[in-house]
Amino acid sequence: MKSALSSRLLTPQHLLWASIGVAVTTITLKTLAWYVTGSVGLLSDAMESFVNLASAVFALVMVTIAKRPADNDHPYGHHKAEYFSSGFEGILIMGVAMGIIWTAVVRLLNPQPLEELGWGLALSVLSSALNGLLAWVMFSTARVHRSIALEADARHLVTDVWTSAGVLVGLVGVALTGWLWLDALAAIGVALNIMWEGGHLLWRSSQGLMDEAVEPDVLQQIQKTLAEFDHKTIRFDHVMTRRSGQRRFVDLHMHMPAHWTLGRAAAVRTSVEQALMSAVPGLRATIQLLPSDVETHFDDPLDMK
Predict the structure, then answer these.
(1) Which domain CATH number covers 33?
(2) Domain limits for position 291
(3) Number of structural domains, the chain?
(4) Among residues 103, 94, 104, 24, which one has the least CA distance to residue 56?
């Protein structure tokens, strides 16, 4: 319970500022680790931390924009700005992954001796611990605030932790066997892993920008709430949902007896809207009133099913 309460008190902006601070710290630690060892694996790790910094800054800007209230030019709000943050982060990750692969292939063809591995390993472990702790807090807060930008940044930090783990495995392998090519091989493995994560973030952001339907569990909750009102007197159809950043939207038709007064119909609609918004936090419901014997069809054949 304390964890949930602390997640509510922490805003996405707070954690993104923390992410910027941690990124600067890990850049310093990992660059120093690369400098003292000469490891291309640690260099790849440091390069990804620069992406962490750029991503956190961009996410902070987009989350700030997403918090703006609706206006005449954006009557539905600015919530989709968070999807741009997720997509931007995915593109950066893909670019860094390709740069790491290029550097690693060059080192694979021309191996170089490594030095001061003990210090390099220690600095890398410390930076990974900072990233892992921040990512854990971010995931919890992202679920509470339904922030895809915060979730994307947390996923990237987790990827950074796995990156560091892969690099450490490579360095330990070099120390135990003397095979210098293990360092470059670890860097390539790291690059392929973060490239997959970058593709995942790009996919998530594209689906959000294309008005993807709400999550299955949220849709089930909407249907469950409507079932409490759906009986012989009124019924619901044409239920359509979409996600927009932290907001969720549902549009539907409510059919009722034609002899009902407008006041009675409006009162029932208000009850349904309040029940839906209470059941699903952040939901905005739009309900069209229709007599029981009237069906509304649109030009799209899918809407006529």
Answers:
(1) 1.20.1510.10
(2) 216-304
(3) 2
(4) 24
Residue 137, both tokens: 């807090």
Single out the residue in 189, 209, 229 at which a domain terminates: 209
Give tens-digit pLDDT for 98-112: 877 777 777 777 776
Domain ends where: 209, 244, 260?
209
* Beta-strand relationship, 247-256 and 235-244: antiparallel
Tell me, what's the pLDDT at 305? 47
Q: Domain of 226: which CATH number?
A: 3.30.70.1350
More reliable by pLDDT, 134 or 113: 134
| Nearest of 26, 22, 24, 30 to residue 187 by alpha carbon | 30
- Please tell me whether the overall predicted TM-score, pTM, comes out greater than 0.70 for this model: no
pLDDT in tens, 4-55: 444 455 777 778 888 888 888 888 887 887 777 777 667 766 776 777 787 7
- Does residue 156 sit in the same domain as residue 85? yes
Give the integer Cα–Cα distance in Å for 185 and 43.
Answer: 13
Same domain for 194 and 55: yes
Say how far apart CA 70 and CA 49 lie, in whole Å: 35
Q: Please tell me the distance from the alpha carbon of residue 175 to that of residue 171, in angstroms, as a whole number.
A: 6
Distance of CA 154 to the CA centre of its chain: 7
Per the model's pLDDT, the better-predicted residue between 217 and 198 turns out to be 217
Are 227 and 184 part of one and the same domain? no
Q: Sheet harboring 283-291: ordered strands across?
A: 235-244, 247-256, 283-291
User: What pLDDT digit, counting tens, does each position of 245-263 carry?
Assistant: 667 889 999 998 888 998 9
CA nearest neighbour of 63 among 20, 34, 124: 20
